[in-house]
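#struct-help
A.M.: can someone run this one for me? Single chain, 303 residues.
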Amino acid sequence: MPGPMTQTHPFGVMLTAMVTPFHSDGSLDLDGAQRLAVHLVDELRHDGLVVNGTTGESATKSDAEDLAVLHAVLEAVGDRATIVAGVGTNDTRHSIEAAQAAAKTGAHGVMAVTPYYNRPPQEGLFRHFTAIADATDLPMITYDIPKRTGTAIELDTLQRLAEHPRIVANKDAKGDLDFAQWGMRTTGLAWYSGDDILNLPLLSVGAAGMISVVGHLVGDRLKDMAEALAAGDPGRAAEINAALLPVYTGCFRTQGVILTKAALEMQDLPGGPVRLPLIDATDAQRDVLRRDLAEGGVTGFTA
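D.P.: on it. Structure tokens below:
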């Protein structure tokens, strides 16, 4: 893994859940994936990337496509950024196979989302995550996003999971600051913000970093914000965060992948279309997005 793995920041501070670029016909754009990864790491100062997650449209990609994207990104930036493979599904056996394939491909870590649709009980969640962690030697992130999965990871379940030597972090998109603070205090897991509007609040109470969506556009400014807070300058961090509010809101006026890919296209960066059942941004949505990004000071956009 590039750089030393520390207990407090096991995957770095600034990561983005990277989109999967497609050609106009919907096929993988692997060259585009490499160019986008280089841009994020070398221009926007990312410590790492998560590939094949929600923003990577994992739900509509095959296993072979996931591995092709992972291999391409590792080849492009794996020597200087931490590359985490999303391997979570609602089938434990499938997730184990995905984790093992990611490890063989060279991923530096894996991330597994709470199983969706089948809404397992907490003991099922515990066994599911533990089985994935047992399947490889890679450090693992649990991903708690009940608004998508229908099931939250409860605190006592996370406490039990934290006893596993390879479950080292939690990506928190629960939107519950009470839970987050108790989770950080009682589990010892490295906490990563998975909800951009809460990046600074979570960092301010001890989160290790961010796994962002708007990092595609403003990762360097998010990194500045985290560094200012760590350097004892909360005022500067708050100033950066306030300036980014239109970006946080603008990129999620509809489904985040849709507007992120639209924004990337506006910047002449690889992204391409989304796959059904998602649909590309309308002209009206793009007009609003341009205004939001201009208000948020994103490079290349003017009011």
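A.M.: thanks! The longest strand covers residues 167-172.
D.P.: also worth noting: The chain has twelve helices and eight strands.
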